[in-house]
Automatic annotation (TrEMBL):
The lineage of its organism: Archaea, Methanobacteriati, Methanobacteriota, Stenosarchaea group, Halobacteria. This is VTT domain-containing protein. It is found in: Cell membrane. It comes from the Archaea. Residues 43-155 form the VTT domain. It is a multi-pass membrane protein.
Length: 170
């Protein structure tokens, strides 16, 4: 791994420079995809990984981000598909209120499966159509492909903004 920001605590610097850095990154993205990572905005994860691990690992970071977020979203999709709305609503870790969920259900009913990649590619709605897709019993294969496609667009745009924006501003 590349040199990491020197102000980080030694244990974190060592972790990000170790062979397990990509495993840790994968697990962070699984949590983000499952909508369980409330402490960090998803918009900062890929740029943060590029800063901490290094820009020379752009493609592996994108691959890990897409794979991890897709796994996390798929887990949430399966919970929605097999657990149902009442089950999710009763879970303390599920933080989408009924009015937002109704709105996203309406989007899915109106536009169908194409809202999954569209929502994954946009700020503020990222992953929000995962649950309505599960409620609608969308095919797992279709969900995985569409979720990964939208996530790839989202993470690639963030990476490009960081890499090229830094060169323009720097």
């Amino acid at each position: 791994m590349s040199a990491v920001v020197p102000e980080l605590p030694a244990f974190l610097r060592d972790l990000l420079a170790s062979d397990v850095a990509f495993l840790v990154l994968f697990l962070v993205f699984v949590l983000e995809g499952a909508m369980l990572l409330y402490i960090a905005p998803s918009e900062l994860l890929v740029p943060g990984a590029l800063i901490l691990i290094g820009e020379e690992y752009l493609i592996p970071i994108l691959a890990v981000a897409v794979a991890g977020a897709t796994v996390g979203q798929f887990a949430l999709f399966l919970v929605a598909k097999y657990g149902g709305r009442e089950y999710l609503a009763s879970r303390s870790w599920f933080r989408i209120d009924d009015s937002k969920l109704d709105r996203f259900d309406g989007w899915f009913e109106r536009w169908g499966p194409l809202v999954v990649p569209a929502s994954n590619a946009m700020l503020f709605t990222r992953g929000m159509l995962t649950v309505p897709a599960g409620f609608a019993e969308m095919s797992s294969r279709q969900f995985l492909v569409l979720s990964a496609a939208g996530t790839l667009v989202f993470e690639s745009v963030l990476a490009a903004l960081y890499v090229f924006g830094g060169r323009v501003l720097g």
